[in-house]
Amino acid sequence: MADLREHFGALAVEGIRSLQPYAPGKPVAELEREYGVSNIIKLASNENPLGPSAEAIKACQACLDELELYPDGNGFALKQTLAEQYSLDMNRITLGNGSNDILEFIARVFLAPGLNAVFSEHAFAVYPLVSMAAGARLNIARPNTRDHAMPYGHDLAAMRSLVDRDTRVIFIANPNNPTGTWIDADSLEAFIADVPPHVIVVVDEAYVEYVTEEDYPDSIPWLQKYPNLVITRTFSKVHGLAGLRIGYAFSHPEITDLLNRVRQPFNTNAMAQAAALASLGDPDHVKKSIESNSTGMARICRAFDDMGLEYIPSVGNFISFTTALPGDEVYEKLLRQGIIIRPVSNYGLADYLRVTIGSTEQNDRFLHALKVITGSGK
Ligand SMILES: Cc1ncc(COP(=O)(O)O)c(C=O)c1O
Q: What is the CA radius of gyration of the chain?
């Protein structure tokens, strides 16, 4: 076994050899199997506790009659509706099997050995994965300090200083996961304007719908001014469709054309396309999801304050916090009570844990268990 590991490892291309696979949140069924607990709640992957829109579920059901058919590989109907809603031409839109798929297209198109990608420490874990798989070097910028207004968030000046002639991609998560920090419109636009034209700036807006901050950018109009800008978004978060895997990107038509060259012909499935389309037609569900998130976020922050826990203020649907106990211990103890959250030490945030904002009942159960575990509750 060990021999074969060495043998095949030596055959693998260099970027893959040193790659650490992405560690997803523990699935419910796995916890059931391993710990024999039931009544499990998963607050580990920033999913929507309200689930998808009822319209999306209906659209999925309608797909059941046509499962033998390939989907529309071009996703015409969904792209057309996105184009209308955002007043963009369809030739600026790429659909992905989750927005992760699109991050990979970007890496495949623009990165290779000898080139590099710039991103911040504590940024979303997929940026190093796709960049390394393409054989590129990682130029990882020092993040904001702990006492900054956006603790551990992106330091744009530090990122800019790492851009050199071999840089092809900059990944910016706005807001970032797992820190929940964000970048205001003026700072982000000044940064994009200053980046040389040989660098693609990817602004990852997976959590855009949750952000209510006034200075948060409306980045879409920038596409007209900055041809090297790519904006990625997803149906996995506020639309509650993470299980179907569908996301999208807006970019210059020439970039869209390049991204679509590496896209598999049927990368987004029929149900995902239909459900995403139906979701776009149900803004009330999005509104409800946002309201539920902000009520839950306020409740969790208040409870953390009462418990004297340190946390990183977040504008997403998750929050990272730390207790006086080792992060892994808190994680394990919560697992034993059927509550799955996420340690984020793999993001360089030792002893921090990230919890997704759940339903009222889920939040209460999580907070109650946390109080008992940390000894800060009555
Ligand atoms: C910052 C960020 N970007 C992108 C994604 C990818 O989401 P998906 O591939 O489900 O669209 C996530 C998922 O957690 C994320 O946190």
A: 21
